[in-house]
Amino acid sequence: MPELPEVEHAARSLGEQIVGRTIVAVTRLDWERMVETPAVDQFLDLIQGRVVRAAGRRAKWIVLTLDDGWSLALHLRMSGSLTVHGPAAEPDAYTHLVLLLDDGRQVFFHDTRKFGRARLLDAAGLAALDSAHGVEPLTDAFTPELLAALLRRYNARIKPLLLNGRLIAGIGNIYADEALWNAQIHPLRQSASLSDEEVARLHSGIRLALLQGLEHGGSTLRDYRNGYGVAGSNQNHFKVYGRAGAPCPRCGTPIEKIVVAQRGTHLCPYCQPIAVD
DNA sequence: CATTACCTGCAA
DNA sequence: TTGCAGGTAATG
Predict the structure, then answer these.
(1) Mean pLDDT per 10-residue section of chain A, whose length is 277 residues
(2) Is the minimum distance from the CB of A114 to strand B below 7 Å?
């Protein structure tokens, strides 16, 4: 799933349901590689009895603030979802982690592809996670000037640069393509070659794509669900992603699909011309 | 920078 | 049967 809008909804909807509750125990962990830190036995021990104080997001991580300085960071990667269920619910074969709450409800971490990850972090671990990621693109810190500086300093093809979470957090394959279409910039453009006007368009194009995703509850291609089990609808509003051959909403030219940095990449060849860098 | 790996299901 | 999928880390 999950890029910034999906993770944001996942975190919020989880928080609405479980903030204030205590994690009584982990009642299932059948894919131990999901737990990255600390060692599994420590993880199981330390998480017991922790109160969930808050739920938030950093980059594509859902961060549950617990008591005693601990945080539970959860990453959904490609196919994960976190949903809250009643006491009688039975996890299926793809539910690899189950947290039992003090009111009997359960949090299911469901993940078909088993790429999802969990980390129980102390304050230092949380700070390390934070500093491993770039600016949050929906905050005031993300200015056109900052974007311009990043594009110049890390000159590279613009699409892979947008996907690099150490520079800008939360943009994945869907929203990178949508943002570049919004900005009318070809994904292969060298980032340092963008004019000030193009940088300004990209800045607002990124925000617009992410805000539109948020507005529609995120995008669900297959697996994504929020904490209530509800799919997003932003996939019905894509301008280019997954629309190869369909008409560009701006000019009617058929959308093209190419490969950039090993990722399927969608663009309008008329609105997003290749520039001679 | 490109390639491979990690997993599984599904569409072509 | 093959290739592809919302992510990211590791390896040449």
Answers:
(1) 93 98 98 97 98 98 98 97 98 98 98 97 97 97 98 96 97 97 97 97 98 97 95 96 97 96 96 80
(2) yes
What structural domains does chain A harbor?
A: 4-131 (3.20.190.10), 144-267 (1.10.8.50)
**Rounded Cα gap, residues A201 and A184, in angstroms:** 8
Distance A177 CA to C2 C1' (A): 26
Rounded-to-10 torsion of CA A32, A113, A187, A211:
-80
- Entry field: residues in chain A: 277
Whether A82 contacts A76, CB under 8 Å? yes
Alpha helices in chain A (DSSP H): 4-18, 40-47, 123-131, 144-153, 158-163, 173-183, 196-215
Q: Indicate if A3 belongs to the active site.
A: yes
Q: How far apart are the first and last CA of chain A?
A: 33
